[in-house]
Design a protein that fits this description.
Layout (H helix, E strand, L loop, with lengths): L10 E6 L2 E7 L2 E12 L6 E21 H8 L4 E6 L9 E18 L2 E11 L1 E6 L1
Antiparallel strand pairs: 1-2, 1-5, 2-4, 3-4, 4-7, 5-6, 6-7, 6-8
Length: 132
C-alpha cells in the first residue's frame, strides 16, 4: 500500500561533483515547457500539440554551503540538489534530484564554517523523480 501522507519539511542536500557541500531548506520547483502547436489548413484545433524545451526553476528559503565549496557556488559552479522527507530516507518515499543547478538570485552572509544563502532562486538542467 502506498503512503499518501505528504512529507512535512522537505529539506535537501547539495552535492558538487559527487561531494556533499551543504544543505537546502524550503525548496519549491517550477517547471515550464515550450508548447509546440501547429494547425492544418482550415482547422481550428491543433494537428500537433507537444511539449517542447523544458526549464526547471527552483526557489528556496535557506541554503548552507561549507567553506570548501562556498567560492564555487558563488562563482556559478553547477550543483545537484537532492530532496526527500525531512530527517529520514524511508524506503518508498519520494526523492527528487535537480541536476546541473545554478543559483542566479540570492543574498548571502558569511558564517564561521561556510556561507548562508537566503531567499534565493536558480535553475537546473533536469529534474529526476524517484524513490528511496
Amino acid at each position: 500500500m502506498v503512503n499518501t501522507t505528504p512529507g512535512i519539511g522537505r529539506n535537501g542536500s547539495i552535492t558538487i561533483n559527487g561531494a556533499e557541500a551543504g544543505y537546502i531548506k524550503g525548496v519549491t520547483f517550477d517547471m515550464d515547457a515550450d508548447v509546440i502547436k501547429d494547425y492544418k489548413f482550415t482547422s481550428d484545433v491543433p494537428a500537433v500539440l507537444e511539449s517542447g524545451n523544458k526549464s526547471f526553476k527552483f526557489s528556496f528559503e535557506k541554503m548552507f554551503i561549507d567553506t570548501t565549496h562556498a567560492a564555487q557556488v558563488l562563482a556559478g559552479t553547477k550543483m545537484s540538489i537532492i530532496l526527500g522527507p525531512a530527517n529520514s530516507t524511508p524506503v518508498g518515499q519520494p526523492k527528487y534530484t535537480l541536476s546541473n543547478a545554478i543559483i542566479f538570485h540570492h543574498g548571502w552572509r558569511d558564517e564561521q564554517s561556510g556561507i548562508v544563502i537566503e531567499n534565493g532562486s536558480g535553475e537546473g538542467a533536469s529534474l529526476t523523480l524517484g524513490t528511496y
